[in-house]
Amino acid sequence: MSINAAYDAQDVKSIMREERWNQRHARAYDRYRWLSSRQRWRDLLSRELADVAVGAELFEVGSGTGFITEILVSCGYRVQGIDLSPAMLARASRNLAAAGCMNRVRLSVGDAEALDAPSGQVEAVVSRWLLWTLPQPRRALAEMVRILAPGGVLVCIDGQFQEMGAFARWRSALVDMVLTGRLPDWRSPAYSQIKGALPCLDGPAIANSLQQLGLVDLSFRWLPAKDTDGKVKNWLMGSAWNSYLVSGRKPK
Ligand SMILES: C[S@@+](CC[C@H](N)C(=O)[O-])C[C@H]1O[C@@H](n2cnc3c(N)ncnc32)[C@H](O)[C@@H]1O
Questions:
Q1: Residue 167: partners with Cβ closer than 8 Å, 6 or more residues away
Q2: What is the rounded distance in angstroms from the CA atom of residue 8 to the CA atom of residue 142?
Q3: What residues are in contact with ligand 1 under a 6 Å CB criterion?
Q4: Which InterPro entries does the entry mention (predicted)?
Q5: Burial of 118 (0-12, 13-18, 19+ CB in 10 A)
Q6: Which listed CATH number (3.40.50.150, 3.30.470.20, 3.30.56.10, 3.10.310.40) goes with 9-249?
Q7: Cα 61 to ligand 1 centre (Å)
Q8: How many angstroms separate the alpha carbon of residue 60 from the centre of ligand 1?
């Protein structure tokens, strides 16, 4: 699939891995967990996964630095997490080891758009804030549905950016500098070119794709700040990101 004249999907993924999800960004990304509410995310996920037996091994796609992985373990699940970025996975291993979770987690490098997992085996697939980063998000959704067992549950949390005013942009750059202890990295020419080419599907489009892929009991809803990281984090980050949740179930 051609993303634009200059890059195809593999180029986009390499650029994202090298320029967006590299060691520097992994460190910065991880520090945002200081502003995150573990309890709110735990409440949200345990509600969404209420029908999935405790002890089951869930599949987390784009597991990042392990924030959601750790919460899933605290809910009683085992987790197989995959991520494109070795730098993000290295952070995840460190965080999960510090939290004493590694005996319930398997992490590996992998591509959401071509999952290295057998079909029809997992009780639940979870992803948070992954789909907007992908050149071919529909391919990733098809992969998630493929690996679900009959009756299995898919929970995708994603979001959409909204335009930030100048004041909000500076505020979020300042927060980034304080959290990371570095100047913002505005020098990433290739990433700047491709980021406008990412499809960034909206919630209804994701729900629509999942319906076409045969999922049932589909639901889509916006997540208010009070159910996620709270208004303070949103304000500090420039209030530019609105999360939503799409879920569904594979028929038995
Ligand atoms: C915004 S971060 C979200 C991380 C984590 N899910 C969380 O909620 O904290 C996006 C993650 O998706 C990963 N990612 C990007 N493209 C991917 C792909 N094609 N396959 C797997 N992971 C990918 C990135 O490396 C990064 O860790």
A1: none
A2: 19
A3: 13, 16, 21, 62-64, 67-68, 82-85, 88, 111-113, 128-130, 133-134
A4: Methyltransf_11, SAM-dependent_MTases_sf
A5: exposed
A6: 3.40.50.150
A7: 7
A8: 10
Contact between 248 and 215 under an 8 Å Cβ cutoff? The reply is yes
198, burial (CB in 10 Å: exposed 0-12, middle 13-18, buried 19+): middle
Q: How many residues does the chain have?
A: 252
Kindly tell me the sign of the dihedral angle through the C-alpha atoms of 87, 90, 43, 140.
positive
Q: How far is the CA of 33 from the centre of ligand 1 (A)?
A: 15
pLDDT at 194: 72
Per-residue confidence (pLDDT) for residue 184, from 0 to 100: 64
What is each CA distance from 241 to 114, 163, 197, in whole angstroms? 27, 9, 18
Give pLDDT, residue 2.
43
pLDDT means over runs of 10, the chain (252 residues): 64 84 84 84 96 97 97 98 96 97 97 98 97 94 98 95 75 77 62 74 93 97 82 70 92 96
Phi, psi of 128 (to 5 degrees): -130, 125
Residue 158 gets which letter from DSSP? Answer: E
Ligand 1 midpoint to CA 83 (Å):
6
Token digits for 34? 């200081």
